[in-house]
């Protein structure tokens, strides 16, 4: 998609601080982080919003959701449960969708936001 900033990042036409990449997706730090850890998981395929996904995107969406906790862990905001069952750490996963969802970039992306609170904004 011409003029899509995340397509350009995926194509390496615009630089980004990449934390993960494979054939299907790229993850990179948000340029305006809402929290100590804030990165975006972006499919290389141009899909405008999660509302435009269908069954053909099931494997891609599943991959993103299953990978997110692993990347969060690598980036220092993983969730852990101790032997008493008490959780610590953790993160927020967020798909802003459409104008009322606060979406600004219309190329599907999953925000992964974490680190010690308070956070500057909710993304
Ligand atoms: P949205 O509001 O669409 O869910 O979030 C878009 C996010 O993309 C924002 O948090 C914004 O800071 C981030 N962003 C916008 N342009 C760029 C860019 O060129 N590079 C990076 N790394 N992040 C960007
Ligand atoms: Zn795009």
TrEMBL record:
It comes from Noviherbaspirillum autotrophicum. The lineage of its organism: Bacteria, Pseudomonadati, Pseudomonadota, Betaproteobacteria, Burkholderiales. GO terms for molecular function: hydrolase activity. The active site is at residue 109. SUPFAM superfamilies: HIT-like. Residues 5-123 form the HIT domain. Signal peptide: none annotated. A motif (Histidine triad motif) lies at residues 107-111. InterPro entries: Histidine_triad_CS, Histidine_triad_HIT, HIT-like, HIT-like_sf. PANTHER family: HISTIDINE TRIAD HIT PROTEIN. Pfam families: DcpS_C. Keywords: Hydrolase. This is HIT family hydrolase. It comes from the Bacteria.
